[in-house]
């Protein structure tokens, strides 16, 4: 099922997502729907809050196809901070340069409730950092300095009013 994507400034995007205690049938269905939605919207990642579910679940496009992680947590970051342009399905038509660590290590649980550990670099590491930010209520516009943030928020507000 295609899910509706929550757009900025929906308050759910600012909330911290809650831990998932059990992989229920409902969570598995949500995982399927998130993958379907991510693919249809041409996204490379999608987090629970973006589809109105304030829970720690993310879908990502990996080199082996789409994957879903439950309760993901970045345990290590390394390498240079790299500045690269990013978009977000919750901020249509906004592209911002964001600094991210080159590599990350992530701890999570998969849909079979098995603990998994992922170590990755480059573009995928960037996606994981972007999506786990969503679980903490952080959007790419929150990465801007105050002045640029005020300017952009004004622009987005005008667009919503129109
Ligand atoms: Zn996003």
In short:
28% of the residues lie in helices and 36% in strands. The chain is an alpha+beta fold and 162 residues long.
Gross morphology:
globular
Mean pLDDT: 95
The distinct bound ligands, ions and cofactors come out as: zinc ion
Radius of gyration: 15 Å
Strand content bin: 35-45%
**N- and C-termini, Cα separation:** 30 Å
Most strands sheet: 5 strands, antiparallel
Low-confidence stretches: none
What is the strand tally?
Answer: 5
* SSE sequence, one letter per element: HEEEEEHH
The strands making up the biggest β-sheet line up spatially as 1-2-3-4-5
Helix percentage = 25-40%
Put simply, the count of helices is: 3
What class do helices, strands and sheet pairing give? alpha+beta
Provide structural commentary.
The structure is a single chain. Helices cover 28% and strands 36% of the residues. With 162 residues, the protein is α+β, with helices and mostly antiparallel strands. A five-stranded antiparallel sheet has the order 1-2-3-4-5. Strand 3 and strand 4 form a beta hairpin. The longest helix has 16 residues, at 25-40. The radius of gyration is 15 Å and the shape is globular. The protein starts with 24 loop residues before the first helix and ends with a helix. The structure holds zinc ion (ZN). Residues 88-90, 130, 134 line the site of zinc ion.
């Amino acid at each position: 099922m295609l899910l509706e994507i929550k757009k900025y400034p929906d308050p759910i995007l600012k909330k911290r997502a809650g831990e998932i205690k059990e992989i229920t049938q409902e969570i598995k269905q949500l995982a399927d729907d998130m993958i379907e939605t991510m693919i249809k919207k041409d996204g490379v990642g999608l987090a629970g809050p973006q589809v109105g579910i304030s829970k720690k679940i993310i879908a990502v496009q990996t080199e082996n196809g789409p994957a879903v992680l439950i309760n993901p947590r970045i345990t290590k970051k390394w390498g240079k901070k790299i500045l690269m342009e990013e978009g977000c399905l919750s901020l249509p038509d906004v592209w911002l340069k964001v600094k991210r660590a080159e590599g990350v290590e992530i701890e999570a649980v998969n849909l079979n409730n098995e603990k998994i550990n992922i170590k990755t670099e480059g573009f995928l590491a960037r996606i994981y950092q972007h999506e786990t930010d969503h679980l903490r209520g952080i959007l790419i516009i929150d990465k801007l300095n105050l002045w640029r943030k005020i300017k952009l928020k004004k622009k987005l507000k005008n667009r919503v009013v129109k």
